[in-house]
Amino acid sequence: MSFLQEFRKFAMRGNVVDLAVGVIIGAAFGKIVSSLVANVIMPPLGLLIGGIDFKQFSWVLKPAQGETPAVVMEYGIFIQNVFDFIIVALAVFTMVKLINKMHKKEEAKPSEPPKPSAEETLLTEIRDLLKQQNTPAALNNPTPPPAGESFSPRP
């Protein structure tokens, strides 16, 4: 088998394709969440706090000198990324809970017990007859066996 055929076989396996689809959808979902946080959640939150734009929060560790740019720690962007993470984590948690709930509903449906085989049915009938014959009333008043069978009463 050539290298290309082997790679094609590997790439087309179910798990690899499912993983690729998951990564692509996850990346797209991440962009949507980032946009939601940056453009929908953070502006009103900044307005409520006093017109603050979180992206502007930073500490200048070393000011710019001539051609050298300033060394800045942009913790406002970090705060925004924390909000991104929290929203993604809540969304994933909610989806996992829903999926688990659906799996529990599927498991909760009781399946019908299998019907007993002919052998089991016969054994059950024999057991019931033996129990009936071993009751005190049956021992004191034995019934004659069907024609052609011998009968020996119990002592």
TrEMBL record:
It is found in: Cell inner membrane; Cell membrane. One of its GO terms (molecular function) is mechanosensitive monoatomic ion channel activity. Signal peptide: none annotated. InterPro entries: Mechanosensitive_channel_CS, MS_channel, MSC/AndL, MscL_channel. Coiled coil: none annotated. Homopentamer. This is Large-conductance mechanosensitive channel. It comes from Biostraticola tofi. The gene is mscL.
